[in-house]
Amino acid sequence: MERRNVISIVLNAHLPFIQHDEGALWSREEQVFFDALSETWLPLLDLLARLDRDNVPFRLGISLSPVLCHLFSDEGLIKKYLDYTDRQIEFGWQEEDRTKGEGDLHSLVKFYVDLAGERRLALMKRGGDILKQLDHYQKKGKVEILATAATGAFLPFLCSSPEAVQAQLEAGLASYRRNFGKYPLGFWLPECGWTAALDEHLRANNLGYTIVESHALVFGNPPAEKGTFYPVKTPSGIFVLGRDFGAAGKFRASSLLYRDNSRDAGYDLPAGMLGPFLSANGERSGTGYRYYGGSAGKDQRQLYDPGAARRQAAGDARRFLDESAARLGAAAAMMKERPVSLCVFNADDFGRFWYEGPVFIEALFREGARRDDLQFMNPAEFLYREESSFQTVTPGFSSGGINGYAQTWLDASNDWIYRHLFRAAGRMTEMAERFSDDSGLRERALNQAARELLLAQAADWPKMMYEGDSAFARGRIEEHLRNFTTIYETLGSNYISTEWLTGLEKRHNIFPTINYRIFRKKR
Predict the structure, then answer these.
(1) pLDDT digits over 20-59, tens only?
(2) Cβ(378)–Cβ(8) under 8 Å?
(3) Angle 440-456/417-434 helices, nearest 10 degrees?
(4) Residue 247: strand, helix, or coil
(5) Looking at residues 486-504, what average pLDDT do you find?
(6) CA gap 415, 410 in Å, rounded
(7) Which alpha helices (H) appear in 61-192, and where do they start and end?
(8) Could you tell me which residues come within 8 angstroms of residue 446 by beta carbon, excluding any fewer than 6 positions away?
(9) Helices (DSSP H) in 384-517: which residue ranges?
(10) CA–CA dist 367, 360 (Å, integer)
């Protein structure tokens, strides 16, 4: 057996649900999706294609939330994205005229115009199907796609209602099977939220492994003897891998060469120059044309240099591998087994938040292929090649977010939501039991009630409240709970408005094959 130490990279990918909107322009949620598509997902697919073409060995784990899978498959959203790129190209032509004679700035504008055209062509060539392309690499054994909960709910807070946890898992797994035609081995806990009560839920759904934060193993019962450098198993037999704390936050060096993603021409230029990116009511939006280097202040005019930034990202990839090799080598000297560094990141850290991130990932795999002290493996690949025994540990309560526990999802800004979520979960179980054999209009209403509750349970809303975006998040969760309550009360009075229900089904059209009976009590 090879004794090379192992790096396993997992990207967690999720975006909040976007309500179906036939408007001419795009909402702020849609703008986030467009940026993610342009700067994370299309570049990621391009780099995977290049690595595959050049026979560079790579392994990448990706957790795709059912909500994000739904957005990728929404034809209306993809059509809006193509319109968005058309507007980017039109805006770029205007910018080319404006910057004539300005040398480097004019070249940078042409770079963005060409890039927008390439992205549009790449999406059209792929038939607009991002999931199919990712699944292609999964079938080749180079990408492992992990399942996760239906709407990214913070599961530890739902454990007082086993039916709510089970519904999140069942709906998430059903989405995975529908999109990828197989059953997953790995399950991503939303926000890395773990509590011991989840162990039996994961085992009941025949899942193989999950991932937790570093301190969940360090403070487990008993503490993990090998820290996060080797998996453990829970009392029910679920494998658990811990995030490598040493790798977290060290993949990116601060550099003035990197692009400043916070400065967009849509907010820097006078309104009269924005053309297709100025709405009828005068509201501005991002254009994707960002002209300045990473940490340049607003009063500084350091132009972004794509070539220099790419070279910096490649150098940072080499540095990251050197540091990982040193850390793994020190661990290997104290272990009989070969250690693994599980590097878990937000997918948007490689593109939407850090523009050069895809360059970094590609350089990481190309540089890794030249080394004889490291190899890349997906989590399942590593687990099922190991022949040693695994320590039995119950990981401690933990999560991602501020301070590593539940502070982000439970503080004075958002604690009010939980009494409403708990009451709605009880009512959903009540309806699933009471109307267990219904069909027709009533079944449609019950299925929509399940959708509304799952959407209300998303961890996005309390997180936004914690981070200060309380008005938007409060509006979303109140809307989903109000819709749920309306269905609950109309079923009690035996009257349902077909017109209202049909409109709601069009706006909140996620989980098309959902069965409300997933909320029934297990017997």
Answers:
(1) 766 557 888 899 999 999 999 999 999 999 999 999 999 9
(2) yes
(3) 160
(4) coil
(5) 90
(6) 5
(7) 66-73, 75-98, 104-125, 130-139, 162-180
(8) 431, 432, 435, 438, 487, 491, 516
(9) 417-434, 440-456, 460-466, 470-493, 498-507
(10) 10
